[in-house]
Amino acid sequence: MTGLVLAAAGSGRRFGSEVPKQFLELRGRPLYLHSLETFLTYCGCAVVVVPPDHVDQAEGEVKNLQGGERILVRPGGEQRQDSVRRGLEALPEDADLVLVHDAARPFCSSALIERVIESARLHGGCIPVLPLSDTVKEVEEGQVVRTLERSRLRRVQTPQGFRRPILEEAVRRAAQDGFVGTDEASLVERLGRPVRTVEGEAANVKITWREDL
What we know:
By secondary structure, this protein is α/β, with parallel strands linked by helices. It has helices spanning about 30-40, 55-60, 80-90, 110-125, 165-175, 185-190; strands at about 1-5, 25, 30, 45-50, 70-75, 95-100, 125-130, 135-140, 145, 155, 160-165, 195-200. The strands form three sheets. Strands 1, 4, 5, 6, 7, 10, 11 and 12 form an eight-stranded mixed beta sheet that branches. Strands 2-3 form a two-stranded antiparallel sheet. Strands 8-9 form a two-stranded antiparallel ribbon. α3 packs across α5 (about 165-175).
């Protein structure tokens, strides 16, 4: 069975709102519900990880969804990977494949979810990526250090999918070593495990700034 950990525990500081951006309304509904509903078709269970002071609100909102009985809500941790760990711990034992998705990406398509699941089951780990269109430079203290080779660089999206034992070990080792990664794949890469890529989607945007919404 495929399980989902929906990462919705961020504070949204960059967005500049008192309310975490994942709880702001889009077309009359909280942003994170748009993300969650798409995945329920493909996931037998889901854990939504939210800020501790939003647990009651989220529990009230998800129970009204079709398939709401398959959704758990848990309080998040200090770092993203702490929240993902709590989500993993709450998934039922028979969830052998885990997808981790950003709650602030409400437009993920069914086709992308299917691509990630298929590749993750086959290879153990998979992430969706997109090529870069802009020139990318490494900068230090306002000075250009070098121009990076754009053809080898990719923008990374979610959902990221992994066989559960791989992701559990990666999260455990990161906590043990005091390593903080920016996504789940960065934790898995540290183990020397392969992470495959599939084509992402330009429409699968992450709401980060006010103008994104």
